[in-house]
Structures are given as C-alpha cells and as structure tokens.
Amino acid sequence: MVSANPPVLEVRDLKKHFPVKKGLLRRTVGQVYAVDGVTFTVNAGETLGLVGESGCGKTTAGRAAMRLVEPTSGSIKVEGQEIIGLSKAELRPYRREMQIIFQDPFSSLNPRMTAGDIVGEPLLVHGVANKKEREEQVSALFARVGLRPAQMKNYPHQFSGGQRQRIGIARALALGPKLIVGDEPVSALDVSIQAQVINLLMDLQRERGLSYLFISHNLAVVEHISHQIAVMYLGRIVEYADTRSIFTNAQHPYTEALLSAVPVPDPAIKRKKLVLQGDVPSPVKPPPGCHFHTRCPYAVARCKVEVPSLREIAPGHQVSCHLR
Amino acid sequence: MSSLLEVSDLGTWFYTRQGIVKAVDGVDFEVAAGETLAIVGESGCGKSMTALSLMRLIPDPPGRIVSGSIRLAGRDLLKISEEEMRDVRGNEISMIFQEPMTSLNPVMTIGKQISESLILHRDMDRKQAMKRAIEMLDLVRIPEPAQRAKEYPHQLSGGMRQRAMIAMALACNPKVLIADEPTTALDVTIQAQILELIVELQREFSAAVILITHDLGVVAETAHRVIVMYAGRKVEEASVGELFARPLHPYTTGLMNSIPRLDLMRGQTDRSAERLQEIPGIVPPLFDLPTGCAFAPRCSKADDKCRAERPAYEEKQPGHWAACWHTNG
C-alpha cells in the first residue's frame, strides 16, 4: 500500500546506547548497544510490526522514536518534521500526535485515580477542554473502547486485565493522535481477551486512520495486525518487508528460525523445525561482524568479521545478510 | 497403557472473605507412563491449582483439598502423612515452574540445589550427588556442566535456568513430571529448545508428564491427550488429534478461533479485513458462578437449559468427553 500523505513517522539510523557505570567514581566502562542504528517508516493508516526476542531493543527503539528516552543519535521525523533537537516545549504539539500503550495494564495505570480521570488526564494536561466537555469526551471514549461510561468513577483494581488495557487504549486515544506505539499491548492477556483487544485496535485503525508501531514478540499477533514488519536482533534490524513477504519468503536465517520456532496449534501439521542453539549474546559485548553469526546455522568466515548492511533484495524487501 | 496416576473427584476449595472459591471442582483424570497429558485453559480455570493439589502444595489456610483421591501407582497420596508426602515430592513426582528465577534458591549454587534431592531421597553423599548433578546438567545440554554447577542462578540465562530446573526435577528419576507453563516466560527460540528437551527426556525416562499451559500451539506439538478446563471444571477431554480436528465444546472452539494463526494466514494478501473471533465477556468470579453451565454467559449457543442446569460430563464419542448440552454425539 502506498499512501499519498507523508509518513507519520520516519526514523533514520536511530541509536540508543546506555552507559555501563562501575566502581566508586561511576566511571563509564562500556556501553549497552540497545538500539544500534535502526531505520524504519510508519506510513499513514498502517501498522509497522517490530518483532524480536527479549533484549533485542524493540522496546527501547519504540520509546526512543517517541523521545521518551533521549536517543543517542539519529533522525526522527513526525509527518516530515524533524523532532530531534526540539526543546520540551517545542516537542509538546508532537506529543499529542504520538501516544503509547504499555504491556502491563496493572502497573501503567495510577491506582489512586479513577478510570475517568486517567482517560481525561491527557485532555487536562494539554488544556483541550473544560470540565464538562472533558467528561463528555471521556464518556464517549469509554463507550468506544467497550467500557460502560458508568465505570468512569471506578478505580483500576476494579477492572479485569482486558478492561484495564481498554482504559489504556482510551487514554491513548484521548488527544486524537495519529500514531500509537503499542508496546506488547496484548501480551499479558488471556487469548480470548487478546482477540477482543486486537479486534478493537484494528477497528479503531480503520475508523480513525490511525497508524501503529506495534511492538511484540508474538509473531502470529504481529502477522495479523501489521502491514509491514521489521525483525530486530541485538539492536539492529535484520529483515524489513511487507507482512506477506516476511511470512512467505523470509530471507534472513534469524527470521526463518523465529518463524519455525512458533508452535502451530494443529497436531496434523508435522514440520521440520530449525531449532537455534544457544542464547542471545549480551548487548554489552555484541559479537563482531553479523550479530547473529554465533547462532546462525549457515555462518561463514565473512560473517564473523564484516557487519552486513541492510540491503534491498527485492522491491520493499530489505535483508541484512551476507549470504543473500 | 495402564495408568500410573489416577485422580478422581479432586476438589480444592479456598475459603475467602467473598465466599468459597472452588478452584478445582470435581476433576478426574489418568496419566500413563510415557504419556503427556496437557491441561489447558485461561487464567483462573484451575489448571495450576490442580497441579499444586497433586503435589499437596495448596496453601492451607485458605485452601484445602476437600475431596477425591490421587493414586500414584495404587497409593492414595491424600491418605498418607505429610512426612511420607515429603518423600514423594521431588522423588516420585516433581514439578517445574513457569519462572525459574523465583523457584530456584538465589544463594545456592545450581549443583548444590540439584544435589539436595539426591542426598535426601537417594542417600548419596555430597560427592556422589554432585557428580550426578553434573551428569544431569550435561543431560539437559548445559555446556560446561562442571563449571555451571558451581554458579548461582543469576549467572544463568532464562533458558539455562529452565534447563537447570528440569535437571533438578529429573535428578531422582520421578514417575510423574508436572510442568506448569514451563516455557511461558521464555522467548520462542528458547521455548523450542526447551520443548524439544522435555519430549526427548520423557522418552528416555518414560515418565508421565502433565503439561499445564495456555498455549494451544505448545499443546498440539507436545501432548498426547488434552483436558480443557474452565472455571475449575473439565469441559472437554480427548486425544490431541481428535480435539484439534473435532472440538466439541464451544469454549474449546472459541479458544482455537481466537488465536491468530501463522500457518493459516500465510500468503493471504488482505488480512486487515479479517477479525479474530472473540469470546465475549470475561471468566466469571469463582465464588459467584452462575447456576447451570459456567460458560453459558459467554456462549453463543447458550439457551435456557444451559442457564438452568449444569451439563453432565459425558463421553460423546469414543474417548472424547465433553460437558455441553449442545453436542449431540
């Protein structure tokens, strides 16, 4: 899908390194290369899925793209406007355009605020509406995400996990953003509830032309919701393509292994699995060359020394592997 | 296959301020040596409480096993003393948990933790036990086992810790291994390694495995037989092939349809038009279950009979059991 509008979010060569401090003087002794140069684009009205395992940097990439953590370097354009270098005040109007939904609906809602106040808070902070308008808007948001407006005066502990995630979604929608970053928004939910929340997110996208940056480790969920997918490994994107290409024509050995590791809920299907050996290396001392070579079944000598670049091997299909 | 473990009419209740919570409400099942039985369901369905009941690890108060029997090779575990039970745990039945970091002792080396059960149950001295512990670590494919045995849990990765837990659980060659969401906290590539390991080791040890999980993919790839639980009761039971081919209970069907599936959607171009089938509503609170079928408030097939009368758990087809008024054989 090609849209006429400028991309909602364009991230170029984004890096986020965290210093590792040690000793009495807290001297910096190393860097955690959490996000080590990622480039991606979220088109208007579309979903980009960011997948990878724990520690691959997908969450940090999502937060750095919103400047919730300050990136080490790189460029972030929101609807064509560079937001790196903007002051807090200058950034404010862009904050309204980008909202986030968190994984854990238990720790991301203030237990001392009513659900109505939680959802209305962004409106208050950005001074959008007076009290009465606010209540009306919050009530409409409640109804839209499938909660009863009467529940506005309840506190978070009175809601189930799925309902709390709906509160989180309503809060994210309050300012009418263009982009919502979902950081594992359905991972903590039971499958029957997960389906409800995924359907809600997709309905909202169609209705409001929302764009999502959908961060998840669950490939099946990402496949279902995304138009484009970026696969991350140790701080870098290893493969980037439209959803169909990723799932029918995966080119990177890591993507291949990820796909083959997902258990299929059908005992009639017998597949040969590509089971990776070993663990993800530490991002403090990532291996030289291709980060994946320590676990890659096809690695050759070149992979151990030379960093592969992300190259386009077919229109819109990028892979970072020497062997492709 | 003759059954190694026979559970009948197991009831585990919790006495809370809101009322009696029947976490496990009249559950029966059998497992044979070398067989993997999966118990699936969502949070609060009673699957973990069933597992803890088998180990007699229910916190009392507020919980209590109020009825039933758990026969392991003929002996009823609910009739023996706590002291005798201590000799069963970790020896004849062992258990691995979801989060290895919280179930391993953080201030004890891995080797010592594995040795502990060997010294206790197998009368080994420390040296023998450590030697066996290192063999076990090697068996679960931990590289440099002698070195790892000297390390503490925090020095191991999540996958390694789960391997160490499995080594510990299998050290005494138990007859029954209970795995409670053994891979839920792990990444998919590590999950694949651990599941492969469990299947292989089961063949080697010919233990009966009870696999507790919410993941139907894991069930399909590892189990022989499946029990589906909802609100403390069994709603369906069948061989894995039969259950996935012909699910009878609307809850089972609902679960299967609510997960996005990679294998089905691969290659489709326009997925954005598709909706996942949802199961409306939420699991009812266990202290306030509806009369009749507990699933009725969320079920599209529910009628007055379902709301009034609890469906009997019946064999609808040979070897295929379900509790539903709307499955006619």
Explained architecture:
The complex is a heterodimer of chains A (324) and B (329). Chain A is α/β, with parallel strands linked by helices and 324 residues long. Chain A has a domain at 9-45 and 52-97 and 219-319: Rossmann fold, CATH 3.40.50. In chain A, 31% of the residues lie in helices and 24% in strands. Chain A contains 10 helices and 12 strands. In chain A, the strands form 2 sheets. Chain A has an 8-stranded mixed sheet with strand order 6-7-8-3-9-10-12-11, with helices on both faces. In chain A, strand 7, helix 6 (191-208) and strand 8 form a beta-alpha-beta unit. In chain A, helix 5 (161-173) runs parallel beside helix 6 (191-208). Chain A is globular. Chain B has 329 residues and is of the alpha/beta class. Chain B has 13 helices and 12 strands. The two termini of chain B are 26 Å apart. At the A-B interface, helix 5, helix 6, helix 7, helix 8 and helix 9 of A face helix 7, helix 8, helix 9, helix 10 and helix 11 of B.
Can I get a quick summary?
The complex is a heterodimer of chains A (324) and B (329). Chain A has 324 residues and is of the alpha/beta class.
Strands of the largest sheet of chain B, in order across it?
A: 6-7-8-3-9-10-12-11
* CATH architecture term of the domain at 9-45 and 52-97 and 219-319 in chain A: 3-Layer(aba) Sandwich
Q: How far is the first residue's CA from the last residue's CA of chain B?
A: 26 Å
What is the CATH level 1 assignment of the domain at 9-45 and 52-97 and 219-319 in chain A?
A: Alpha Beta
Keywords:
heterodimer; A: 324 residues; alpha/beta; Rossmann fold; 8-stranded mixed sheet; 12 strands; 31% helix; B: 329 residues; 4-stranded antiparallel sheet; 25% strand; globular; Oligopep_ABC_C (chain B); ABC_Ni/Peptide_Import (chain B); membrane (chain B)
